[in-house]
Amino acid sequence: MAEIDRILLVEDDHKDVELILSALAENRLANEVQVVRDGEEALDYLYRRAQFRLRHPGNPAVVLLDLKLPKVHGLDVLRQIKSDDKLKSVPVVILTSSTEAPDLEQSYELGVNAYVVKPVEFAQFVTALKQIGLFWAVINEPPPGSYRREV
Questions:
Q1: Three-class SS state of 55
Q2: Which one of 3.40.50.2300, 1.10.8.60, 3.40.50.720, 3.40.50.20 gives the CATH number of domain 3-150?
Q3: Residue 65 backbone phi and psi in degrees, to 5
Q4: Sign of CA dihedral 53, 59, 64, 69
Q5: What pTM did the predictor assign?
Q6: Which single residue of 25, 27, 32, 56 could bond 6 by disulfide (Cβ 3.0 to 4.6 Å)?
């Protein structure tokens, strides 16, 4: 049986969430996508606390992380992930509309695995997400401790 790995999507814009989920579903990569709406919720998910305290153990195969988030900024979430021995091997892909050089530079300094600027055109957006999802959730071997679900 094929295995689909869990994706953690950290995105506060409802329209972007719908587009991302549609693009992943269109490419049959949406079976295990956990959506959280702010940086605090992302950390709660990763550390299995608050509303996520009872979630299945294991890390996502990849975190798709927006930068401009409420409560805890995306760069602070990235900093926390990459500074924690139990999380630092989890791939993080920044998926943002920011083309600001400081955001790009700081993301890579903190250890991001990829930085993708959200395309404006829907078809390009779908193609970009297909490539991201296929690579990180299907092709790439996730780090030890990642949650895998057989389908």
A1: coil
A2: 3.40.50.2300
A3: -120, 120
A4: positive
A5: 0.85
A6: 32
